[in-house]
Amino acid sequence: MRYILAMRWPPVLVAPVFRPPSEATSLILQLTVGCSWNRCTYCAMYRSKEFHVRPVDELVEEIRGAVRALPGVRRVFLADGDALAAPVEVLERVLEEIRRELPDVQRVGLYGDSRSILRHGAEELSRLRELGLGIVYFGPETGDEATLRAVRKGATVQRQLEAARTVTSAGIKLSMMVLLGLAGLEGSERHARATGRFITEAKPTYAAALTVTPVPGTELFDAVQGGSFQLPDRWGMLRELVWMLEEMEGYRGPFHANHASNYLPLKLRLPRDRESALELMRHVLETRDETRLRPEWARGL
Ligand code: SF4
Fold first, then answer.
1. CB 81 near ligand 1, within 6 Å
2. pLDDT (tens digit, 9 = 90+) per residue, 120-174?
3. In this structure, are residues 191 and 212 in contact, taking their beta carbons and an 8 Å threshold?
4. Where are the domains of the chain?
5. CA-to-CA distance for 206 and 163, rounded, in angstroms?
6. Residue 196 Cβ contacting ligand 1 at under 6 Å
7. At the topology level of CATH, where does 21-287 sit?
């Protein structure tokens, strides 16, 4: 008997869709729509969407559609904001289907927040790793308790640390993002130093520092506009990076601060590049050498 498999192409993508820069060549499948939390004061990424998990049959049809449309595809990214919030049975089914239908795929990645990571726990995550989940992108944003509360992240430093360790203990790569400027001018040094210590303790596979950008439609934007929250200027953001790096003496691995939102793009391997990067940043701060900074018009989210 010959089976005719239902397939659909291209995949459904409910805009806007975000993915990490390192997933630029990946097949993007929208496993969930929106973010399961959607309450952080600085984030408007998924405000227009009501969170839900997409029907697994649709996803399976899209994976089968990719067999013809994208033969040889090597990476898959499961959107949206917190695809790890999906039930484990859904994740397993999708990963199994990817493995069966797209045998050249070497890595499947997704965003996961601390709640979803901890809900699954190391055991379930290990199963997902065996089925092909290779990397979790996790944005604790800060290692400072007061800042976490202020931005309504919905997690404590300890919970975020546990979440980070849960991912790596399951043998999955952990890519961690933090945000320069998140505590404003007032909490600048406290946030930066606590975040540097947090990264060092959490031991992610990759760490990256981005710069917070107030986006219309967020509480942060309103607070900046209303004058109740003052962001550090570009020199202040650079100073935060120095404080952060000063606290990262024990961290080993890549540390990138080269996102389009950052003023001084840096791509470091630590501990090798730590001293030279600190020296460069201190020099730029002392000399106020504007030629080393990315101009405002060239920055992006
Ligand atoms: S920052 Fe992350 S967890 Fe917070 S609302 Fe945005 S996507 Fe959701």
1. yes
2. 999 999 999 999 999 999 999 999 999 999 999 999 999 999 999 999 999 999 9
3. no
4. 21-287
5. 15
6. no
7. TIM Barrel (3.20.20)
